[in-house]
Specification:
mainly alpha; 407 residues; Receptor-associated Protein
């Protein structure tokens, strides 16, 4: 009897893997469902369930679609499925509407798998770098409970909200980054190339130079003599940080330091808690148990101190503490999340209240990003203007002194 390798999730969304002896993949699926498992991948033992190629030599496991494309295609799929279109036809339509070959290839292959009897989650599991465990787990549970259109729409909302936050943060930092790079480049050029040429003129005059000019000459000579050392130091520092950042203890330390900052810390808290609340709302609204939902929502949090707080809150909920009280005792989560969670638990509308909390936190994150950009841009301009002013004064003071001597 042939053996089949399977990947599945239980009723709580917890992943399961193993080997089963059966006559066919359909028989394996029936056995798993009888055990209360929802299969996502079923393959003959020894074949590539996730790796390999799509038949044209194209590496499946290395394909990663951009988040914007995933959000758009998820929204399209949710609309088509809600309209009553069969799933395989909806997948085909999404692939035909795609503007790029990779997206079309993914949904065409998924459509073929679904038409052959595979589940949607099992078909999407061939692209683990594109569709996360959370995405596939929600799809698997939703397909079994008949809530696939609702879950797909919530997933699309979640992905789109994350894209908006990312775009806001990127746009807020583009202008300050450009100002910093250009100003720094101008200052380096002045110190390394322009100042030495002016200094040669001053040295021929044999006059006593102002202290500011002498300091600038010393700084210029220091930078010219140690430029390669500074460059090597920057590269070594970046490499050392990348290596150290692999350690969870190191990441936890600098994450804690970041959260203590008055502006950046509050921004990180708002973004991470919004992501946590949104994920928790999707999971609880899809029928997943609260404890499993808390574990999955904790994994999407970026800052390790907030992730640890989410884990501690989940441990308290396991002991019978209410979710709102468990979150409050961590002293990390914003009051709006705690109050709306308490209202949701009291009214039996936890998922809608969590969605509302996520919306409030996302708006707060947007306001903080705008305020951060509005504060950073003029601060950088003033700083760079002050540096350029000092350079100009250092160059012009000797000229003014020589003019006074001539008079």
């Amino acid at each position: 009897m042939p053996a089949f390798r399977f990947e599945a999730v239980d009723a709580g969304g917890k992943p399961r893997r193993g080997l089963v002896d059966a006559e066919s993949a359909r028989q394996v699926r029936d056995q798993l469902r009888a055990q209360g498992l929802f299969p996502t991948v079923i393959d003959a033992a020894g074949s590539a369930a996730v790796g390999g190629s799509d038949g044209s030599g194209y590496a499946i496991d290395r394909l990663r679609l951009p988040a914007a494309r995933i959000a758009l295609s998820t929204r399209q799929l949710a609309t088509l499925v809600r309209s009553g279109m069969p799933l395989d036809q909806a997948l085909s339509a999404v692939g035909e509407q795609a503007d790029d070959a990779d997206t079309a290839r993914v949904y065409a292959a998924a459509r073929a798998q679904v038409a052959a009897g595979e589940t949607l989650a099992g078909a999407l599991a061939r692209w683990p770098r594109t569709f996360s465990d959370l995405y596939r787990g929600l799809v698997a549970v939703a397909a079994e409970t008949g809530q696939l259109p609702v879950v797909l729409e919530r997933l699309a909302d979640y992905l789109e909200a994350r894209q908006v936050q990312k775009q806001q943060f990127t746009l807020a930092l583009v202008y300050p980054a450009l100002v910093t790079v250009i100003a720094f480049s101008v200052i380096v050029v002045l110190l390394v190339y322009v100042v030495p040429q002016i200094v040669s003129v001053y040295e021929q005059s044999r006059q006593t130079l102002p202290w500011l000019t002498r300091a600038l000459i010393a700084l210029s000579g220091f930078l010219r003599g140690t430029a390669w050392l500074w460059l090597a130091g920057l590269v070594a520092g970046a490499v050392a940080f990348a290596i150290a950042n692999r350690s969870q203890a190191f990441r936890a330390r600098w994450h804690r330091a970041l959260l203590r900052m008055p502006v950046a810390g509050r921004l990180v808290v708002a973004v991470d808690t919004a992501r946590f609340a949104s994920t928790l709302a999707i999971l609880t609204g899809s029928g997943a148990p609260l404890l499993r939902s808390l574990d999955a929502a904790r994994d999407v949090v970026w800052a390790l101190p907030i992730r640890a707080a989410a884990g501690a809150a989940a441990a308290l909920v396991r002991e019978g503490v209410s979710l709102a009280r468990a979150l409050k005792e961590q002293r990390v989560f914003p009051p709006v999340l705690i109050h709306l969670t308490a209202n949701g638990e009291a009214s039996g509308q936890l998922a809608p209240m969590l969605e509302r909390a996520a919306e409030e936190l996302e708006r707060e994150a947007g306001r903080r990003i705008s305020w951060f950009a509005a504060l950073l841009q003029p601060a950088l301009i003033v700083l760079m203007g002050a540096i350029v002013l000092v350079l100009v004064l250092a160059v012009m003071l000797p000229i003014v002194s020589m003019n006074q001597l001539v008079r």
